[in-house]
Amino acid sequence: MPELPEVETIRxxxxxxxxxxxxxxxxxxxxxxxxxxxLPPEEFCRQIAGRTIExxxxxxxxxxxxxxxxxxxxxHLRMTGRLLHETAGCPESPYLRATxxxxxxxxLCFVDLRKFGTMWLVDDESLVTAKLGPEPLSDEFTPSxxxxxxxxxxxxxxxxxxxxxxxxxxxxxxxxxxxxxAGISPKRSANSLSRKRVGRLHSAIREALEVALGDxxxxxxxxxxxxxxxxxxxxxxxxxxxxxxxCYVCGTPIQRIKVAGRSTHFCPKCQR
DNA sequence: CTTATTCCCTGATTGC
DNA sequence: TGCAATCAGGGAATAA
Length: 272
What we know:
Blueprint: H1 4-18, E1 23-28, H2 41-48, E2 53-59, E3 62-67, E4 72-76, E5 81-86, E6 96-102, E7 107-112, E8 118-122, H3 126-129, H4 143-151, H5 157-162, H6 172-182, H7 195-214, E9 255-259, E10 262-266
Antiparallel strand pairs: 1-6, 2-3, 3-4, 4-8, 5-7, 6-7, 9-10
Helix pairs in contact: 1-7, 4-7, 6-7
The structure holds a DNA duplex.
């Protein structure tokens, strides 16, 4: 599940190898009817062909390719999407959903087992990212912002962290990790946290994301970088998918419960 | 406005 | 062992 650290790793890897490259031909699988949003797939392919990639940015979990005529190619990998860079065409795969051939013979190959991934070709970024909250690693994301946000919510604090309109880019892995680092139970109602605890949570969110970014993200099941390599942070998580294993701090077995409809891992002793 | 639920999709996992 | 039911999960849509 690519979250902010994984998507940012993809962005950083791809930028130097595709910036300045022109997409010579695009193909979308007829077996991926929901992949391309807002445009018929044929029209999407026709419009993106001939465009040069000038830059790549990221907003939350969205990867944004800036094209030479001002159009934006936005990609969301959702659960199982991968954007692979191949130097000699896309290998056969039953899960290959779209291909983008470049003018140097390389290709970007969109592979997505579960077909939840989506992409857009738009002239206005806000058509895709308008509802997103601030970037958690930006100056805009302050302890005061987080405090005000949590104060008006009665849902569990984890639900607030997963809400992309509140904070952009946190998913199930880093919500659990941040709450462990902050020593806060994922079940706690968001508005019950003191300002001091919110301050700790703010730092913990940044810590969890920055360390994971340094490890090139986490590969629990599906995530691979553009070269097909795994990230490294799955080996360092404190609670995520460590159900029954001892907490690194106190030795108490890590518990798994459902919060906000998502499996949630936490230490019942360290997180109150 | 917020919150809870359902749906999409398919391989992996669980349960009888 | 075998096969069916359930799970996993981001986010849109829907309902309350």
